[in-house]
Amino acid sequence: MRGLNKKVNSNRRLAKRYKNLNRINFCKFKLKHISKISFLRKLPYDLHDLEVTDTNYIYRACINKTGEPFESIERIRFNPNPQFISRANVVGEGIGYYACAPDISIIEGCQDSLRNSDKRKFTMTVSKWKIKRMLSVQIVCNSKKTQQTGTDLHLFCNATKRKRSREMERKNYRTYFLKTKFLADQYAKTNIKCDEDYYISALHSKTILNPRNNIDGIIYPSIGYLYIGFNYAFPPRLFNNGYFELEEVFHINVEFDKKNYKKYPNWNIINSTRNFDNDRIIW
């Protein structure tokens, strides 16, 4: 990390440093060292409203510890005290990881196990939540590779860039563009060798989802589903303040290809329920 804490005086140098950071494997570095890099402290963000509609749902999938589904709503909402870094959380700080569709949540929910073991068959508990209040979210969109998969991500990106280019001087806009591109490339990172490779996106999430910022979440392309569809990262406070309502829970089987787990898996619903009693899921 030598030299990365020096002040950046030009966009050319900024581009070079971001390029170097995108190449670095962080497995040997500590979080406190990366968090001190000066030009990572104030990465820009652009907010979009996520409206409440009749069809606006989010989904979360959890691998069952046994063959039986979970029976606690509290348990399936989010991990309140994660013991590992992931794409949008640091150790000890819970984040609600969700997806825009059930199959994306299933694929994403298995990624760590698929990458770190030979296991290819799972049973999972998948929950479906209704969005009840409008959300103000950052959409991480300024990465070329994530815009080439046929989603509407490029529309958000182009609209945001047009707005910013009208508001900023040319040099400042170039700085903004470099920063948002670097951030999007970090969220789209696939060459994960260790949990520490998530450092930068996790630090970004920790920073902007601070309650003082009044930001409700982050939307970013699904890496497990090859950038098709979207993942969500929500702070736990939203689940305690009426933003979401649990509507249905599914018990599912899923099986991934033994040779290439990146292929779309086979999955089927074993059972489902809409019956709840306080924290209890009644199957």
In terms of topology, how is this protein built?
Elements (H helix, E strand, L loop, with lengths): L10 H13 L7 H4 L12 E4 L6 E7 L9 H5 L18 E4 L2 H15 L4 E11 L3 E5 L13 H15 L2 H18 L11 H10 L8 E5 L8 E5 L9 E12 L10 E8 L2 E2 L2 E2 L2
Characterize the structure shown.
- 28% of the residues lie in helices and 23% in strands.
- The chain has one domain (11-281).
- The longest helix is centred in the middle third of the chain and has 18 residues, at 170-187.
- It has a five-stranded mixed sheet with strand order 1-5-6-7-3. The protein has a four-stranded antiparallel sheet with strand order 2-4-8-9.
- The model is unreliable at 1-5 (pLDDT under 50).
- It has helices at residues 11-23, 31-34, 73-77, 102-116, 153-167, 170-187, 199-208, and strands at residues 47-50, 57-63, 96-99, 121-131, 135-139, 217-221, 230-234, 244-255, 266-273, 276-277, 280-281.
Give a quick account of the main beta sheet: strands, pairing sense, barrel closure: 5 strands, mixed
Report the span from N to C terminus. Answer: 52 Å
What is the residue-averaged pLDDT? 90
| Morphology | globular
The total count of strands amounts to: 11
Summarize the structure.
With 283 residues, the chain is an alpha+beta fold.
Features:
283 residues; four-stranded antiparallel beta sheet; 11 strands; disordered N terminus
